[in-house]
Design a protein that fits this description.
Layout: H1 2-20, H2 27-36, H3 41-49, H4 59-74, E1 80-81, E2 87-88, E3 91-92, H5 96-105, E4 110-112, H6 120-135, E5 142-143, E6 163-167, H7 174-182, E7 186-190
Parallel strand pairs: 1-4, 4-5
Antiparallel strand pairs: 2-3, 6-7
């Protein structure tokens, strides 16, 4: 199924980056990811049975996204709704109805407002959605990222082209930073200038 294929692509990307010495992932970490990556169709089907969704939101797709968020939390991470307005094959990667419902329901810990794979118009669309959801009363913490596509181990301080997150945390411990994001004590900082 498509989810198993997507999982395999992500695992292969981790392994390739580890081999190239990129994105700060070691071979041991990539091996751990390979060992623990397991899409569980039965769990997704159980989640799907519990859903009541508006028209335009696929129960299967929505249940899969809940499952992913749950797995992120199970392993101690944040679940971030990344680049919902990324255009893939001429259409948004995720339908607007699905994106809005995920934000209303608080499925993810934060929304990625900017990414180096997006142009300024795609970023503006996501920022507009974030503002609209906040007007509607949704609580939507934010981050921005470089999505790790262009990290170069020889230049770990390369300026972010797409954006980065500024978290107001009491210390640099991962748990503290993640809590700052969850508590809406973070900013999505944009940098759409190409570094010279």
């Amino acid at each position: 199924n498509k989810y198993a294929i997507w999982q395999e692509i992500e695992v292969l990307a981790c392994e390739a980056h580890a081999e190239m010495g990129q994105i700060g992932i070691t071979r041991e970490e990539a091996a751990w990811i390979r060992e623990h990556a397991a899409f569980d169709r039965a769990e997704v089907d159980e989640i799907k049975k519990t859903l009541t969704l508006p028209d335009g939101v696929s129960p299967e797709d929505y249940a899969w996204r809940i499952w992913i968020a749950n797995k992120s939390h199970e392993f101690g991470g944040l679940s971030i709704l990344a680049h919902p307005h990324w255009i893939w094959n001429g259409v948004f990667f995720m339908g607007e109805e699905t994106t809005m419902q995920l934000l209303r329901d608080g499925v993810h810990d934060a929304l990625d407002l900017s990414d180096d794979g997006l142009d300024i118009h795609q970023t503006d669309t996501t920022v507009a959605l974030w503002n609209e959801m906040r007007i509607q009363g949704a609580r939507v913490p934010v981050v921005a990222s470089t999505d790790s596509h262009y990290t170069d181990a020889s230049n770990p301080h390369r300026p972010a082209v797409g954006g980065y997150t500024l978290a107001f945390a009491p210390n640099r411990q991962p748990a503290s930073i993640m809590q700052a994001v969850r508590d809406e004590r973070s900013l999505a900082v944009f940098n759409h200038c190409t570094p010279e």
